[in-house]
Structure formats: C-alpha cells, structure tokens
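FORM 7B: Structural annotation worksheet

SECTION A. Query
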Amino acid sequence: MSDAHDIVLIPGDGIGPEVTGAVVKVLDRAGAPLEYHRRVAGLAAIDAGKDVMPGETLDAVRQYKVALKGPCTTPVGKGFTSVNVQLRQKLNLYAAIRPVRSLEGVPTRYDHVDLVIVRENTEGLYSGVENEIIPGVVTTLKVATTEGTRRIAERAFRYVEKRGRQKLTVFHKANIMKITDGLFIDSVQAVHDERHPDVPVEMMIIDAGCMKLVQDPTKFDVLVMENFYGDVVSDLAAGLVGGLGVVPGANIGDEDAVFEAVHGSAPDIAGKGVANPLALLMSAVMMLNHLHETTGDGRCREAAAKIKHGYNAALADGQKTRDLGGDLGTLAFADAVIERLS
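SECTION B. Predicted structure
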C-alpha cells in the first residue's frame, strides 16, 4: 500500500504473536492503511540472541513514530530491565492513557462506567532510584519535577477538551507527601489557571478517591495522577468493567506513541489459540484514532469506527472468548468482529 502509514509491529511473546496476528487480520479487513515493520522485544528478542529491548526496535519506533505492541515478558531475577520501562523512559513516553468503559455483553456489578486514567509515566516512585543505606535498611526515591508534572497536566487537560469530556480529577497524597505530591497538584492547578480555565478540576486524596471509585465509578470522568498511583488505579478500574482483557492502553510522548495490550503474556495458554485479542484490538483502534489526529487521514478514523462497531456488536451478540464466559478461540473472535464491520 503505497500511501500507507508505517508502524512498528512488536508481536511480543507468549500469547503475543497469536493476539497480534488476529488483530492484524481485523485491521486489514477493515481497510486500515498500514504498513507493518516487525520488530522483537521480550523473550522473543532473547530467543533471537538480542537484548530484551533491542536498540533496533527502539530506533524503528523513533523512525516511524507509532508502534503496536503485544505483551512481552521480562525475565525475573536475571538482571533484565523491564521492556515497558525501557520503552517509556528511552522514548520519553510520559503519558499513559487508559480508557475504561462498560461493554455490552460483558456483565459486571457496575453499569455505564466511562472514565479515562492519565498516568505520568516516567517519574514518581517508578523512577528506579533505590539504595541500600546500611544492611537491612533500603530506600526508594520518589522523583517529581516541574517539567514532568506540568506536561502530564497539559496532556490531561487537552484530552478533556479534545474528547469533549466533562472534568478532570487529580488523585494525590499531598497531605503526607507534601513536597512531591504538593508539586504535582500545584502544577495541575497552574496549568489549569494559565491555559485551561474552563475545564472543571477537582483534587482528591487517593485513598478517599479509590473508595469513591468503587462506590460509584460514574462520578468520575478523566483522572490524572503520578506513576505508581496510575499503575494501581488503572488496574483497579479495569476490574470494574471485566478485567485487563477488555481495556486498551497507550503510551504517548511528544514524538512517539506505543499502543499495547496491558495484560501479560500468559505463557500457560500460549499456542492454544484461546487468548482474547480484544485488548490489543481496542488499542489498535486508539492507534488509528491517533494517526487520524496527527495526520488528518480520514481512512484511519473510518477503519477505527468500523472495528469498534465490530467488537461492540460481537460482544453484544454473545460472541466471546473463554475468559469472558464464551467459547470462541482467538481467530474465531477476530472473525466474529470481521463479520460485523460496518
């Protein structure tokens, strides 16, 4: 396809190649104008004699600006740095965007959930700065900068405005971590006052916020928070709508963007053809919408709308994989979506 958009495709390992293959099949049938450049990461990279996060994979993302990534395994206890952490830090993907919404056909105890978590992705408690002071005494350093907190605030406010959302809620613990979280909420307030005064914003202590979130998630719209809080709360929120298998994810910076399934590589079911490709498919829809926003290519928006309609209709018709109570395999679910593209 001569006028296609070049993207990096990282199938990953475990169930990654299976769900990635299913997603590519749907993308192609939906007419998504994409040219795939395959690269490896995780165990697949190690098996190929490379580093867990090869430099050539990072270079490809820098070149093509957009990547679709399946789940990758980082070996535990062998000195490897997390694939995801390396991607975020080396490509400066400072904003993790996690939409969470209820899906027809996926019953949970909550109805009408529709919220978005914006997580700062490069600072906070996940900065990786740990030290042993003396034997038996260790510390970890929580990092917050004016630049980092202001740019995630700006990203969150712009998301509210561009997507027609209603308000922004800040989760924090500034009553205890007065300097670091104090800087975070001060930066959000300053960006609000200077650039986005028409967006309603509220500050909420995170423990109270989590209680309110499980009491009634419909009270929330877009939430922004530091790295560690965002990791915990985004998974908590996924549990409101059916788990990590039904929520997409994006890691976005000023230059590059990586869209990924946020669940694990599930090696116990790899190769069995039963993995649910929905999370990666939803992430691919986010990627297409991103391409439309950054390039103006209406074909990407049209393909995204077709695919979203397809998986919504499939789920509503009871076409589900085993993890959601159905009996479809990976490719059978992809075919059910393809049958409903419109």
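SECTION C. Observations
The domain at 1-97+247-342 is CATH 3.40.718.10 (Isopropylmalate Dehydrogenase). The chain has eleven helices and twelve strands.

SECTION D. Sign-off
Analyst initials: ____
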